[in-house]
Amino acid sequence: MVNIKINGIECSVEEGTTILEAARANGIRIPTLCWLKDINEIGACRICVVEMTGARSLVASCMYPISKFDEGKNILTNSPSVLESRKMTLELLLSNHKKECLYCSRSGNCELQTLCQELGVKHEPAFDGVRNEYEIDDSAAHMTRDNEKCINCRRCIAACTNVQGIGVIGANYRGFKTSIGSPFDMDLADTACVSCGQCIAVCPTGALNEKDDTDKVWAALNDPDKVVVVQTAPAVRASIGEAFGYPMGTNVEGKMAAALRCLGFNAVFDTDFGADLTIMEEATELLDRVQNGGVLPMITSCSPGWIRYCEAYYPEMIPNLSSCKSPQQMNGAITKTYWAQKMGIDPQNIVSVSVMPCTAKKFEIGREDQSASGYPDLDISITTRELVKMINAAGLCFRELPDETFDSPLGIGTGAAVIFGATGGVMEAALRTAVWKLTGEDVNSPVEFKEVRGVEGVKTATYNVGGKEITVAVASGLKNASALLEKVKSGELNVTFIEIMACPGGCVNGGGQVIVPADVRNFTDIRAERAKALYGADESRPLRKSHESPDVKEVYEKFLGEPGSHKAHEILHTSYKASDLIK
Amino acid sequence: MALKKCIVAFSGTEEQENELKAVIKEHGDDPGALMPVLQKAQDIYGYLPIEVQEIISREMNIPLEKVYGVSTFYSQFSLNPKGKYRISVCLGTACYVKGSGDVFNKLQSILGVTSGGITDDGKFSLQDCRCIGACGLAPVMTINDDVYGRLTGDEKELREILAKYE
User: Fold this and answer.
1) ipTM of the complex
2) Range 164-193 of A in CB contact (< 8 A) with B
3) Each residue of A401-444: pLDDT tens digit?
4) Cβ A172–B69 below 8 Å, yes or no?
């Protein structure tokens, strides 16, 4: 332990703790812009500077590990010279910033804007000078980048490179000309970007945004000739409450369903139904592969970011991918076939909308082989953030809405379905049904498989099912997925079934979720907090295994036949293609 | 966003590619090898077009963006080949105060290229440089080994000089 003083107050900290963390532990928040704990520790932005006895100049507190040589030193986190330096750094950033805060998508939750208020930037420009001009890159299906709002903090690069192991964006050029871009300044759409949106989730400003599709949704809702249906992914209910003042990890599915009805959707479905269908198909596919010598290990296909990653970075593993469509696409496909038939609606007149924690879903809806009815399974996919925007635009007092339920038959989901939103959830859900099947459809077959839960990057577990040992593996975050796949390829790890989610922690931490400022992100495990909402929902649902869902049973009995049937394949399965985009 | 691909067609040979691959192999898995590999690649090809950077990216298992980021950070690397006639304009202190900035800007507009660029016929490449030790003649530019001093920045003067190399 080292004894130091922070603003004159004595405290004792473990050697190696950074000044920033030591201050935080003692109730003092030092502002940051570039620092993301464990992900982006580059000491670049100089916002977190502090004064320290004996130091020749101000010190970047995020990068300064306190050592025994600092014994007795005093650290000032808010002295006049510290505040003046921070303010000047900020003013210099602002001199090269596109200040359209009035209508910027991040106004109100922009870290740069917050700092301006905290540090009392009163008038501007404090500095005149050249401002860089850039074209907005809106080439990708899921996002836009406006470098004129970028502060070069490199948090997006860290998310892309250090977390996901992809690195299709980086810092190009040098000095004042430094800009974030892709190789040879090519369009993002021409790179092997997987659309995960983790870069957007960590951007402190409005430089990175999902493509805003809310106008399309409003247009559909206002078109009297259209039947507009909506579905919401499991993870959305675990995050959307944060935008309305609920603590992180609060499940607000009832109010969310009510809000969607208030917005004017004709039917409010739950992607949970699609998730239960996915389990029926995927478990059947897995057992078929195991019993009939199919390609193993089988890998889940729910995460469109993972699918893009596999197609670009591991094309040799495409035969291992489950041919099941994602729950979103299954829900969409059933909506425009079975539900349309049942309701007597021409699928042409249905506009199918999804609310997703995910930006890659915007890409997924445009994929080939995703049009079971002859029309695209989904028409518009919006993120959790876009739904927040719509709820606010409609003037809905979210907290005052009643708790409502989803519409049947595409709105009832089991506990197995709701945990799809957390890493390990699909695996656990699949095990619930696969084990039930392999143990002779015993109603008392196990429900919980806790070994595959938790935020760890790679998890493995072995289960004895019907006298046979099955090893499964779960990875979330693509760098972790890559590490797992390398072990599988080298033969070091022998597994039967793998779940992979592109985003670390799974969909709860998806690129389309409510933005969490770095200041919270650095000191809270948002993956674990939001997952609690889903495991809580699972426990409280009366049915916790996908095959027990009455809605799923109905769709098979009246429409699809058996899981894995020819018709099920036509409607609920898809195909993949190796991609040669620039890596 | 526009793809910044070199306008002069790539004409790398198999020998060059093999030489580059041998260089990369020499460095093995050394994580700091990108700089020396880029330097050698530039020695081999004279410049670092996308085709060469893609070989480096693939062989070293480094994202192309990282290779590009490094190659645009250091001024020693060029994304364009040198022209048949290499124009260097001195932007060192003495030349600059004597107006070499104007000379440089005029040349950029006459040739339609920016610093480090090459005309699409591959004839002229333009580069700014620092002091070449001819301050007495400021402002100075060189075309290959020919030195032109006491330039006025007059467009006619520059066009006449360039005409000698048609």
Assistant:
1) 0.93
2) 166-174, 181-188, 190-191
3) 999 999 988 888 999 999 999 999 999 999 999 999 988 888 89
4) yes
Shared domain check, B89 and B152: yes
Q: CATH number of the domain that B142 lies in?
A: 3.40.30.10
Is A186's CB within 8 Å of B73's CB? no
Q: Which two tokens stand for residue A424?
A: 């390990």
pLDDT band of A123, cuts 50, 70, 90: confident
* CATH of span A215-572: 3.40.50.1780
pLDDT in tens, A495-517: 999 999 999 999 999 999 999 99
Facing residue for A135 by CB, picked from B1, B69, B74? B1
Cross-chain Cβ contact A170/B3 below 8 Å: no
The matching CATH number, chosen from 3.30.70.20, 3.40.190.10, 3.30.420.40, 1.10.3720.10, for A94-210 is 3.30.70.20
Same domain? For B115 and B58 the reply is no
| Those residues with Cβ within 8 angstroms of residue B118's Cβ, 6 or more apart along the chain or in another chain | B6, B7, B8, B80, B81, B82, B83, B124, B125, B126
Mean pLDDT, range A109-134, rounded to an integer: 90
Note whether A2-78 and A215-572 share their fold.
Answer: no
Q: CB–CB of A172 and B2 under 8 A? A: no
B155 min Cα distance to partner chain A (Å): 27
pLDDT tier at A127 (50, 70, 90 boundaries)?
confident
B149 and B94 both lie in a single domain:
yes
A436-493: pLDDT as tens digits = 998 888 889 999 999 999 999 999 999 988 788 899 999 999 999 999 999 999 999 9
Contact between chains at A167 and B57 (C-beta distance less than 8 A)? no
Interface of B with A (CB under 8 A): 1-5, 50, 53, 57, 63-69, 72-75
pLDDT for the residue B151:
95
Domain with B159 in it: 85-163
Residue among A184, A194, A580 with most chain B CBs within 10 A, to mutate: A184
- Taking CA–CA distances from A178, the nearest residue in chain B reads B73
Cα–Cα separations (whole angstroms), residue A559 to A285, A334, A376, A410, B141 = 19, 10, 19, 14, 80
Q: Which residues pair with A352 in a beta bridge?
A: A229
Would you state the pLDDT for residue B3?
66
Q: Computed from CA positions of residues B21, B25, B31, B32, in that sequence, does the dihedral angle turn out positive or negative?
A: negative
User: Which residue type sits at B110?
Assistant: I
B144 in a domain, yes or no? Answer: yes
Q: Looking at the structure, do residues B63 and B115 belong to the same domain, yes or no?
A: no
Mean residue pLDDT across chain A: 96
Kindly report, residue by residue over B52-80, the tens digit of the pLDDT. Answer: 999 999 999 999 999 999 999 998 899 99
Question: In terms of Cα–Cα distance, which of A507, A506, A512, A450 is closest to A475?
Answer: A506
User: Angle, nearest 10°, between helix axes B100-111 and B155-163?
Assistant: 60
What domain count does chain B have? 2
Residue B2 lies in a domain: no
Query: Which residues, listed in sequence order, are joined to residue A380 by a DSSP beta bridge?
Result: A353
Q: Which CATH architecture has domain A2-78?
A: Roll (3.10)
Sign for the pseudo-dihedral over CA of A151, A152, A155, A160: positive
